[in-house]
Automatic annotation (TrEMBL):
<keyword id="KW-0663">Pyridoxal phosphate</keyword>
<comment type="similarity">
    <text>Belongs to the class-II pyridoxal-phosphate-dependent aminotransferase family. BioF subfamily.</text>
</comment>
<comment type="function">
    <text>Catalyzes the decarboxylative condensation of pimeloyl-[acyl-carrier protein] and L-alanine to produce 8-amino-7-oxononanoate (AON), [acyl-carrier protein], and carbon dioxide.</text>
</comment>
<dbReference type="InterPro" id="IPR004839">
    <property type="entry name" value="Aminotransferase_I/II_large"/>
</dbReference>
<dbReference type="InterPro" id="IPR015421">
    <property type="entry name" value="PyrdxlP-dep_Trfase_major"/>
</dbReference>
<dbReference type="GO" id="GO:0008710">
    <property type="term" value="F:8-amino-7-oxononanoate synthase activity"/>
</dbReference>
<dbReference type="Pfam" id="PF00155">
    <property type="entry name" value="Aminotran_1_2"/>
</dbReference>
<comment type="subunit">
    <text>Homodimer.</text>
</comment>
<keyword id="KW-0012">Acyltransferase</keyword>
<dbReference type="InterPro" id="IPR015422">
    <property type="entry name" value="PyrdxlP-dep_Trfase_small"/>
</dbReference>
<comment type="pathway">
    <text>Cofactor biosynthesis; biotin biosynthesis.</text>
</comment>
<dbReference type="InterPro" id="IPR050087">
    <property type="entry name" value="AON_synthase_class-II"/>
</dbReference>
<keyword id="KW-0808">Transferase</keyword>
<keyword id="KW-0093">Biotin biosynthesis</keyword>
<dbReference type="InterPro" id="IPR015424">
    <property type="entry name" value="PyrdxlP-dep_Trfase"/>
</dbReference>
<protein>
    <recommendedName>
        <fullName>8-amino-7-ketopelargonate synthase</fullName>
        <ecNumber>2.3.1.47</ecNumber>
    </recommendedName>
</protein>
<feature type="domain" description="Aminotransferase class I/classII large">
    <location>
        <begin position="53"/>
        <end position="406"/>
    </location>
</feature>
């Protein structure tokens, strides 16, 4: 179409892209601007970040597999036999035997009929939720769920109702008042909440779902490889294997690779292959990522000692933090925003800190002391906190060094 001579133009000479710089200024003013730091060398309990060696308490690599020789060898071999890229949608350009091997290994780990792998956990949530429900349906969403669950919920067009974090009474009340007005109902919950480290009351959620004829999708991103006698996740640890539910997760945390998955009935998986847009219209997982994840699942099966080491480290650090807090004066440790260990049942331990400025300052002091710890502030979380994630490959001296640094950094300026 020719450009009309009288095309309406704003009075100013602003470009239609100028708003972005202004938005960035606002982000800077709120001290919210972030950019990733550069790592070199293998991932692990000790990393090189921007030229400094840091003990890493900010990783999701719970089992220390992302830098494991066996995963790397499997990825290299897959590249040599299958190439670097999957070249297109698996439905259009075909899939590799490795894709199905991985899906079957996930299904076996999860004790489900089948599984499907997506290019990331985020995409698994988007595609699965939007395929399961639509505008005539209801989603009940734990208020602390990961953003990918909420993004999938919004994408689906279903009515989304938040329930209070982990609150069964609130979930039950909302099912009672809303369920009958909708065709299908889907309850969404993380199993391990990533910014607090606490667990969802899964058996009770499943009981409520049965009573109200609702589907349940659990996000096992932080549970897989970490929880359960065989490492299958919280579903196993909380005695819910075999119950009707949809289990999603990621291959990028304890499994040290990249990708996401959904495990469940053969019908569910076949349905997703035909309806999940984020699987159908995207390129299949690369051979290297697929092979690395498969090697990781074999290690999860064969090396329960890794899980045991992770839990040993978790218990040791939790105890050390509790012992230290017990020696602190009451004015530091009492009150809503005081220094306090948040209730956690996972290798994610969060030390609440009085305010955002303090947590940022503590994050910097810890870096100076050679430690990498997440400094998380509102609005990502309700209260500021240092977020510490344990790995199976942390050594006792790593924990000792962390505790020494915390002792000298808290209270700041003391
Ligand atoms: N769910 C949860 C609970 C997560 O923590 C994450 C990753 N931060 C995801 C989903 C997304 O997984 P991925 O990184 O594989 O996209």
């Amino acid at each position: 179409m020719p450009i009309p001579k009288t095309a309406p133009s704003p009075a100013s000479t602003e470009s239609p892209y100028d708003w972005m710089a202004k938005a960035l200024q606002t982000i800077h003013r709120a001290h919210w601007h972030r950019s990733p730091q550069i790592l070199s060398g293998r991932p692990g309990a000790v990393v090189e970040r921007d030229g400094r060696t840091l003990i890493n308490f900010a990783s999701n690599d719970y089992l220390g597999l992302a830098g494991d020789d066996r995963l790397m060898a499997a990825a290299i071999e897959a590249i040599q036999t299958d190439g670097t890229g999957s070249t297109g949608s698996r439905l259009i350009t075909g899939q590799r035997a490795l894709h199905r091997e991985l899906e079957q290994a996930i299904a076996q780990l999860k004790q489900t009929e089948d599984a499907i792998v997506f290019s990331s956990g985020y995409l698994a949530n988007l595609g699965t939720i939007a395929a399961l429900v639509g505008p005539r349906d209801l989603i009940l969403n734990d208020a602390y769920n990961h953003s990918s669950l909420l993004a999938g919920a919004k994408l689906s067009g279903a009515t989304v109702v938040d329930y209070r974090h982990g609150d069964l009474q609130d979930l039950g009340d909302r099912l009672q008042s809303h369920r009958s007005h909708y065709r299908r109902c889907l309850i969404l919950t993380d199993t391990v909440f990533s910014m607090d480290g606490d667990l969802a009351p899964l058996p009770e959620i499943l009981d409520l779902a049965e009573a109200f004829s609702a589907m349940v999708l659990v996000d096992e991103a932080h549970g897989t490889g970490v929880f359960g006698a065989t490492g299958a996740g919280c579903v196993e640890a909380l005695g819910c294997s075999g119950r009707s539910l949809i289990q999603m997760g990621t291959l990028s945390k304890a499994l040290g690779s990249l990708g996401g998955y959904v495990a469940g009935s053969a019908t569910l998986v076949d349905f997703l292959r035909n309806r999940a847009a984020s699987w159908i219209y995207t390129t299949g997982l690369s051979p290297a990522d697929t092979a690395a994840a498969l090697a990781a699942i074999r290690i999860v099966n064969q090396e329960p000692d890794r899980r045991a080491a992770l839990w040993h480290n978790t218990r040791s650090l939790r105890q050390a933090l509790q012992d230290w807090l017990a020696t602190q004066p009451a004015e530091l440790t009492q009150g809503d925003h005081a220094y306090r260990l948040l209730p956690s049942e996972s290798p994610i331990l969060c030390l609440q800190v009085p305010n955002p400025a303090t947590v940022s300052q503590l994050g910097r002091s810890l870096t100076e002391a050679g430690l990498w710890v997440g400094a998380i502030r509102p609005p990502t979380v309700p209260t500021s906190r240092l977020r510490l994630t344990l790995m199976a490959t942390h050594q006792p001296e790593h924990l000792t060094q962390l505790m020494a640094a915390l002792r000298s950094a808290i209270p700041p300026g003391a």
